[in-house]
Specification:
By secondary structure, this protein is an alpha/beta fold. The protein contains 7 helices and 14 strands. The strands form 5 sheets. The protein has a 5-stranded parallel beta sheet, with helices on both faces. Strands 1-2-3 form a 3-stranded antiparallel beta sheet, with no helix packed on it. Strands 7-8 form a two-stranded antiparallel ribbon.
Length: 347
């Protein structure tokens, strides 16, 4: 084996600003050779433009609004995914002022806002041509109301970036539980196909009727279409290429931070081992990954730290309910959340 006495005149060749080749003069005694070595770039995960904008925003507000805020009942977390609202005509938001919502969010320092266009009752807060259970069915404004449009217009008026939350995993009106419609055999299969087509149609309506959106949030993630679920990712990518996608089993551009406490772990890395957020062999391992990320992860997937405003003093409720003000978080608790979320690299 040739063992040189010395290496001389190292030189790096660049192409398009990137180091490509290292050249060396290799000498031993009177012998001299030129050696060229390719430089292998190590690729590190980095945010795309959607993720970068989301992280730089730091603080967003999610407005939960659905039929049952008008029925004067206390539901408790998750009950409305099981029990349909008896009379949807109780929904009569005649004093609704989305400008007030968004101004309050802006005054709190939020840079973006998200509205539950559909939640677990299945009711759509917009004019839908594919889902009859929507604003068209109401007496309110003679069936012509569109709260999503009002919300988006208010966001643009006050300079916040609008986002939309779509709850498709649960639907008490159509009898959908964890993406699957109730029933058996061919009856269930046909209803599942109809539900999937309806969901895909609603996603297209949201993506095409309200201008550019900042984020689309599928609560609980959308299942993979190979498992018989709606195929939503191609629709979002086609009609909203600049919109952050959160999330399904094909892709998560951000990840849930592992709790609804408004905090994440420390440290909290923005990198993750898989391109979707359902990583981890066990539930315990998955929760640790969600809270902390992985410093050696191959994918950029920053954490989201969400919490309901009514989560204080033993309560955990995302919607307004009567006589519930004592459970609104005090300012000092909200500040602690900020330090343990944004201060730890989450949004």
């Amino acid at each position: 084996m040739f063992k040189p006495d010395r290496l001389e005149r190292p030189f790096v060749f660049y192409e398009d600003g990137r180091a490509k080749v290292l050249s060396l003069a290799v000498k031993k005694g009177d012998e001299s050779y030129s050696v060229f070595l390719p430089i292998k770039e190590k690729k590190y995960p980095a945010p795309n433009k959607r993720q970068l904008a989301w992280q730089e925003a730091e603080l967003g507000v999610v407005f939960h609004y659905d039929l049952h805020v008008f029925d004067n009942k206390k539901y408790g977390q998750g009950n409305n995914r099981i029990d349909p609202v008896d009379d949807y005509q109780i929904f009569n938001p005649k004093r609704l002022n989305t400008d007030q919502w968004i101004k309050a969010a802006k005054d709190a320092g939020a840079k973006f806002a998200i509205l539950t266009a559909t939640h677990e009752t299945g009711f759509a807060l917009f004019q839908s041509d594919v889902n009859p259970y929507c604003m068209k069915a109401l007496k309110y404004k003679d069936g012509k109301g569109d709260i999503v449009r009002d919300f988006v217009n208010s966001c643009r008026k006050y300079g916040l970036k609008p986002g939309i939350y779509l709850g498709i995993r649960w639907n008490s009106f159509y009898g959908v539980h964890d993406f699957k419609v109730n029933g058996e055999g061919e009856f269930r299969e046909n209803r599942q196909k109809w539900y999937n087509k309806m969901v895909e149609g609603m996603v297209k309506e949201i993506c095409t009727n309200y201008g550019e959106l900042f984020e689309i949030w599928f609560d609980g993630g959308a299942d993979h279409p190979d498992n018989g679920a709606p195929d939503v990712l191609p629709i979002v990518r086609q009609y909203q290429p600049n919109c952050l996608f959160y999330h399904n089993k094909q892709l998560a551009e951000v990840r849930w931070g592992g709790s609804e406490s408004g905090t994440v772990g420390y440290p909290c890395w923005a990198t993750f081992p898989n391109f979707y957020s359902h990583a981890g062999d066990t539930q315990k391992e998955r929760m640790i990954l969600l809270k902390h990320g992985d410093p050696n992860g191959k994918y950029w997937m920053p954490a989201m730290a969400d919490a309901p405003l009514r989560g204080f003093n033993g309560r955990h409720e995302w919607f307004w309910e009567p006589d519930d003000e004592e459970h609104i978080f005090p300012l000092e608790n909200l500040m602690e959340m900020y330090y343990k979320s944004v201060g730890r690299n989450a949004t």
